[in-house]
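Thread amino acids onto this structure.
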C-alpha cells in the first residue's frame, strides 16, 4: 500500500501543475504542530523562490484548487506559506481498514529484494558471554528481523572469535594441569577421545586463569605466553592433537553459547567463525600482491586505504605480520571472500562495538579496492556505544567484576518476578514464563530505544518499570488490549460479527488511526537508516495514542453494538501492529501482567 504522505502528494500534484508550478516542489510531512493540523505541505515556500512570488500567494492559489478534495476535511494556507491539512475521517478510516486486511499492514516490501548478511553477536569461544556482547546480540537480532520483514533475503551470522590466542592459552593451561593427556604425547598414534577433557564450568575457569597467567610481568608469565603463542601457531597450522582439543573447546563452548543466545531470543542462521575463513587467506594474500595493492613495510604486508578527501588519517591495513601471522583484518577480508562465494550479498551490515570502526573502514576499503566485493555493494558498519552503569563507567557486577550475561538476565527476571507477584495479576502457573518474557523487555527496549551509536546508562529500576518510556510499559498496553478482547469474546462469543473501523468521531479516536497509518513508513525508515530506535519511538507513540483512546472511550461498556464492534476492530489492529513491532525488536508480550 502507498504511504499516506505519498497519497497526499498525488492528490496535490494536479493542483501544482494546474497552477503552473512544477510538481517537484511538493513537500509533504507529518505536522510538527498536531494542534494545528495533521499533515503539512511546505512546497509553496520552495516554489516561491523559483517563481518569484510570495509563498502565501502560491499557497492560497493551491488551496483554492484543493478545497473540494474528498481526501481532506480541512486545508488552508497560513503565513508565511504553509498549507495545513487535516484528513477526512472517512478517507482515513478507509485507509486504516485496508491496512487491517493487508498481511503487512500496508508496508510496501522492497521492490528489489537484496541478499543481506548481518554480522552480529561476535562472541569469543571459550570466554563466557558478558554484557559487552549484549548490545551486539540485541541490536543485530533486531536489524536482521527488520531486513527480513522488508522482504530481503537476510542471513544472520554470529561470526565467532574462534581462532585467536585464547585457544593457545587454554591448550597450554590444560597441558600444565593434565600433562598425561594423549594430546600432549607426541608419539600417540591412535584416535583421540570423543569426550572433552573438561566441562563448560571447568573451561570457564581455565581461560581466565590462563589469561591472567600470561599477563603476569614475570619470567614465568612471559614463558607461558610464549608457549601459548606457539600452541596457537601450531593449531593454526593444522597440528592434529591441538585441532582435536580445539574441537572439544568448540563443542563444549558452542552448546553453552547457544543456550545463552536462546535465552535472549537471538537466533543465528550461520554459526561460522574466524576459523572458517582461514582456507581463503593464502589466495587473498596472493591476489592482493598480484594486483599490486599489497606491499612490504617494515617486514609486514600492508595495503594503503587512505583516500582523497579523508577528514582524518587512515593508516594502511596490515594483512600479514612480519612473522607471517595473519590478523583480524585478514580474517575479516577472507570471510568476505567466503560470503561472496556462497551468497553474493548486496549489503553487509556489521553490528560491532564502535571502537572497532577504524578496523572496518580499512577492511571495507581493501575489499572494494581489491574487487572482493562489487563497487556498489553496501558495506555498513553499525558501531554501538557502551552500556554504562549509573555510577559511570561500563556496567559491572556489584563488586566491580565483569557482569556475566546469564547473571544479569537472572537478576532482572528475579526483580520482575517479585513485581508481578505483588501485583497478583498473573496466574501462578504462568509466573515463571511471564517473568522471562517481561524480563527481556528492560534489556532489549532499554538498549534499542537509544540510538545505537550512543553510550547509554543501564538503569535497572527505571527500565523495569511498567510506567514511562519502557519496554514493560508497552507490554502492559498490549496486555490491556488483550484483556479487553478477551472480555469482548466472553460477552459476544468467538464468532461475533466483525465491523470495519468507523470514521473517527473524536480526537483520540482519530489520533489513534493517524498513528496506525505511520507503520509502513516507520519500518521503511528503520531499515533504510539501520535504526531500530525509530521503531521503539513509534511503539511508544502508538501505545500513548491507544491509552488516550482507552481513557476517553468505554469499550466493553459501550451500548451501541456497531460502535463497539468498530472499536474492537480498531484496538485489534493496534495490538497486531504493536506485536509486530515487538517482534521486530526481538520481544514478545505476555498474556497477563
Ligand atoms: N569477536 C569480535 C570481538 O569480540 C567481534 C567480531 C565482530 N565481527 C567481525 N566480523 N569482525 O571483538
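Threaded sequence (593 positions):
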Amino acid at each position: 500500500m502507498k504511504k499516506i504522505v505519498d497519497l497526499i502528494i498525488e492528490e496535490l500534484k494536479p493542483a501544482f501543475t494546474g497552477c503552473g508550478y512544477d510538481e517537484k516542489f511538493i513537500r509533504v510531512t507529518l505536522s510538527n504542530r498536531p494542534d494545528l493540523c495533521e499533515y503539512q505541505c511546505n512546497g509553496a515556500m520552495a516554489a516561491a523562490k523559483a517563481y518569484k512570488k510570495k509563498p502565501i500567494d502560491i499557497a492560497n492559489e493551491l488551496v483554492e484548487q484543493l478545497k473540494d478534495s474528498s481526501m481532506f476535511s480541512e486545508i488552508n494556507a497560513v503565513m508565511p506559506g504553509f498549507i495545513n491539512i487535516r484528513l477526512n475521517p472517512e478517507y482515513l478510516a478507509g485507509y486504516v481498514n485496508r491496512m487491517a486486511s493487508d498481511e503487512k499492514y500496508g508496508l510496501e516490501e522492497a521492490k528489489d529484494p537484496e541478499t543481506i548478511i548481518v554480522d552480529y553477536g561476535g562472541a569469543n569461544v571459550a570466554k563466557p558471554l558478558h554484557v559487552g556482547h549484549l548490545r551486539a546480540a540485541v541490536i543485530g537480532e533486531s536489524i536482521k528481523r527488520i531486513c527480513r520483514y522488508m522482504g530481503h533475503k537476510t542471513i544472520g551470522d554470529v561470526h565467532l572469535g574462534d581462532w585467536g590466542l585464547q585457544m593457545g592459552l587454554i591448550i597450554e593451561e590444560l597441558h600444565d594441569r593434565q600433562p598425561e593427556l594423549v594430546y600432549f604425547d607426541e608419539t600417540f598414534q591412535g584416535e583421540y577421545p570423543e569426550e572433552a577433557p573438561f566441562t563448560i564450568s571447568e573451561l570457564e575457569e581455565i581461560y581466565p586463569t590462563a589469561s591472567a597467567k600470561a599477563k603476569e610481568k614475570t619470567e614465568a608469565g612471559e614463558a607461558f605466553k610464549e608457549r601459548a603463542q606457539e600452541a596457537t601457531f601450531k593449531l593454526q597450522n593444522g597440528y592434529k592433537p591441538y585441532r582435536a582439543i580445539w574441537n572439544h573447546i568448540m563443542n563444549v563452548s558452542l552448546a553453552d553459547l547457544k543456550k545463552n543466545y536462546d535465552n535472549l531470543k537471538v537466533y543465528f542462521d550461520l554459526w561460522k567463525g574466524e576459523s572458517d575463513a582461514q582456507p581463503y587467506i593464502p589466495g587473498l594474500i596472493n591476489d592482493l600482491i598480484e594486483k599490486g595493492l599489497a606491499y612490504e613495510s617494515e617486514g609486514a604486508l600492508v595495503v594503503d586505504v587512505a583516500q582523497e578527501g579523508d577528514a582524518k588519517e587512515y593508516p594502511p591495513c596490515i594483512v600479514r605480520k612480519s612473522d607471517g601471522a595473519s590478523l583480524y583484518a585478514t580474517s575479516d577480508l577472507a570471510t568476505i571472500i567466503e560470503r561472496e562465494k556462497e551468497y553474493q550479498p548486496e549489503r553487509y551490515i556489521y553490528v560491532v562495538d564502535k571502537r572497532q570502526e577504524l578496523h572496518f573502514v580499512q577492511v571495507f576499503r581493501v575489499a572494494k579496492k581489491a574487487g572482493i566485493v562489487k563497487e556498489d555493494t553496501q558495506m555498513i558498519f553499525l558501531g554501538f556505544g557502551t552500556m554504562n552503569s549509573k555510577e559511570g563507567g561500563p556496567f559491572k557486577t556489584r563488586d566491580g567484576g565483569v557482569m556475566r550475561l546469564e547473571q544479569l538476565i537472572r537478576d532482572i527476571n528475579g526483580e520482575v518476578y517479585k513485581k508481578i507477584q505483588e501485583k497478583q495479576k498473573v496466574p501462578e502457573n504462568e509466573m515463571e514464563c511471564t517473568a522471562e518474557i517481561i524480563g527481556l523487555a528492560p534489556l532489549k527496549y532499554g538498549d534499542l530505544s537509544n540510538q545505537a551509536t550512543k553510550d547509554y546508562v543501564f538503569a535497572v529500576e527505571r527500565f523495569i518499570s511498567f510506567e514511562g518510556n519502557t519496554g514493560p510499559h508497552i507490554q502492559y498496553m498490549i496486555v490491556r488490549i488483550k484483556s479487553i478482547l478477551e472480555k469482548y469474546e466472553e460477552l459476544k462469543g468467538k464468532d461475533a460479527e466483525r465491523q470495519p473501523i468507523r470514521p473517527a468521531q473524536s480526537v483520540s479516536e482519530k489520533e489513534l488511526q493517524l498513528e496506525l497509518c505511520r507503520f509502513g513508513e516507520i519500518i521503511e525508515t528503520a531499515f533504510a537508516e539501520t535504526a531500530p530506535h525509530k521503531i521503539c519511538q513509534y511503539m511508544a507513540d502508538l501505545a500513548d495514542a491507544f491509552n488516550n483512546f482507552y481513557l476517553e472511550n468505554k469499550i466493553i461498556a459501550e451500548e451501541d453494538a456497531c460502535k463497539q464492534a468498530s472499536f474492537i476492530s480498531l484496538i485489534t489492529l493496534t495490538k497486531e501492529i504493536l506485536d509486530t513491532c515487538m517482534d521486530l525488536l526481538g520481544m514478545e508480550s505476555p498474556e497477563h501482567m
